[in-house]
Amino acid sequence: MARTRGKDSLGPAKKSERRRKVVHVFTEGKVTEPEYIKIVRERAGANGVEVRIANASAPGSQRKPIKLVEAAVRLMREETRAAKRSGLEKKYWPAVWCLFDRDQHDHIEAAMKQAREGGVDIAFSHPCFEVWRLLHHKPVTGTFSGVCDLVANRLPFAGSAANIKMVLPEQIPKGSFAEAKKRALKMNEAYAEHVPKVLRDPYTDVFEFVEKGLGITAY
Prior knowledge:
The protein is α/β, with parallel strands linked by helices. It has 8 helices and 5 strands.
């Protein structure tokens, strides 16, 4: 997996020349999440944040949650060292995020633990990212028994979309973020606080990535 290093990744070494924060994002999906991020940023604006899809060319074998986190932790370590060496103001230090789903993956809890210990943020969905897409259109109730296809089939455009993995601008209603977040919070609260994320079906906290990672609060 290709990784950026040193000042080539951080940009200008002189802190006086640095005026934006770089956010590196590792995505489980090669199409869906990057397309969503692109559309949202085009609609809402960059907000002084530069977003880089860190694993854009990675093969499927390197897109399992545990693999994403391992690579993300390495990059976080490198970026932090480079930021310190360059004297970069802390508010401009790079951040690293991983976006992945429960699906049928192994080692999810281990991946989350490793991310926490390595300073990497996670946006997690159960059973899949399509839960977040669906929340832009309607409330989500009941359970999907870990089957992503059941979520995708409830998307209002499922019958007409040639490839459900592709995200089109018209599939994200304008001004829908606030309502999607509100629905997500209500959906997540259906479980007791002590119940781990990996056992909540459905669940998503992608809205935290949008707000904290992308610096966007409305689109």
